C-alpha cells in the first residue's frame, strides 16, 4: 500500500451505520483495522436502492478524488432493492445488476478501483426477502467475478450468524448495533479487503 489512497464508500443504511450507538458502523471498524495513508468518505444513505446510488454516485464520488491519488470505491447495495413495496420489489434483479455494471464500467473509465460488498440480510423482512437478496447477491458475485472485481459475500453469512441476528432483533429488526457491525466488519476484513488495497490501481 503506497501513496495517497482515497476510498469512497457508497450505498445504503448499512454503509451509513444506522443502529450503531458508537456511530462507526462496519465502515469505521474496517478503517480502524486498516493501516496506510487513507482518506475515507462515507456516502451511505438510508433506504437507498441501487437506482438511488447510481443516480448520485459520480456527483458525490468524483469531487472526492484526486488525479494524483489512488482512488477507490466500495459499493454496497441490494437489501432495499429486494424489499416489497406495493406488491412488487423496489428494483428487480436485472435492473439491480445493470446498475452495478454501470458503476463498474464507469470506474474503469474514471481510473477508480472498485470493490463490492454484498447486501446484508434484513432479518425482520422474512424468508422470501432473504431468498431474493441471496439470489441477487449470487448474481452480483458472478458479475463481479466476470469483471475481475472483488466481491465480499455477506447475505447468508450474516443471516445464519447468531451475533448478527440477535443484535438486529434487539434493535429495529433490520440494523444491528456494535456487535453486529463488528461481525460484518470481520467478514470484510477476512475477505479480500487487504488484498484489494495492495493490488495495483485499475
Give an overview in words.
This protein is an alpha/beta fold and 202 residues long. The chain has a 5-stranded parallel sheet. Helix 4 packs parallel to helix 5 and helix 7 runs antiparallel to helix 8. The chain has a single domain, classed as SGNH hydrolase (Rossmann fold).
- The first-level CATH class is given as Alpha Beta
CATH architecture: 3-Layer(aba) Sandwich
Low-confidence stretches: none
> What is the CA–CA distance across the termini?
14 Å
- C-alpha geometry: globular
Within the CATH hierarchy, at the fold level, what is the topology? Rossmann fold
DSSP helix count? 9
Overall pLDDT confidence: 96
**Class by SSE composition:** alpha/beta
Q: Please report which band the strand proportion falls in: under 5%, 5-15%, 15-25%, 25-35%, 35-45% or over 45%.
A: 15-25%
Helix content: 40-55%
Q: Let me know the number of strands.
A: 7
Tally the structural domains.
1
Order of helices and strands: EHHEHEEEHEHEHHHH
**Oligomer description:** single chain
- Taking Cα atoms only, what radius of gyration do you get, to the nearest Å? 16 Å
Strand order of the largest sheet: 2-1-3-6-7
